[in-house]
Specification:
With 139 residues, the protein is an alpha+beta fold. It has a single domain, classed as Ribosomal Protein S5, domain 2 (2-Layer Sandwich). Helices cover 40% and strands 19% of the residues. The protein has a 4-stranded mixed sheet with strand order 1-2-4-3, sandwiched between helices. Helix 2 crosses helix 3. The N and C termini lie far apart (54 Å).
Length: 139
């Protein structure tokens, strides 16, 4: 079906990506997020957060050896990054970003969709806490 003259076809949605700008890499970045003391547990993960001014979220992962062998840890990290990729792609325009550090506790590996729900739940509760702190601080 050809579009009528004067109308543009709807752009195809871009594929969600996970690029270098979406990562927390340096120890100082991780420390800043931990020191912000915004922490919400969600099942087998604990999400630490710090607001940023970038307009998009960034992710840092902490998966210790207690979680399992290297194969299991890497599988969990792949699924967490995939879940984060979808969350970042649907991040509301104009909303400030969050630096997230996800600490993983020992558990059986879950599908990426399950991790997406856990991360969204925790970030939603974190956003409510941030909004409440700003209201209490006043103008």
């Amino acid at each position: 079906m050809n579009p009528s003259p004067g109308t543009l076809p709807e752009p195809t949605p871009r594929r969600p990506t996970y690029r270098r700008r979406h990562r927390l890499i340096h120890n100082a970045e991780f420390s800043a997020v931990y020191n912000a003391k915004l922490k919400k547990p969600a099942g087998p993960i604990v999400v630490f957060a710090l607001p940023n001014t970038l307009g998009h979220p960034r992710l840092g992962l902490s998966v210790g050896r207690r979680v399992g062998n290297a194969v299991k840890r890497n599988a969990i990290k792949r699924r967490l990054r995939d879940a984060f990729r979808h969350i970042a792609a649907h991040w509301p325009a104009g909303q400030e970003g969050l630096d997230l550090v996800i600490v993983v506790r020992p558990h059986d590996t879950r599908p990426a969709a399950a991790y997406t729900g856990l991360i969204e739940s925790a970030t939603g509760r974190i956003q409510k806490t941030i909004d409440k702190q700003r209201q209490d601080a006043g103008p």
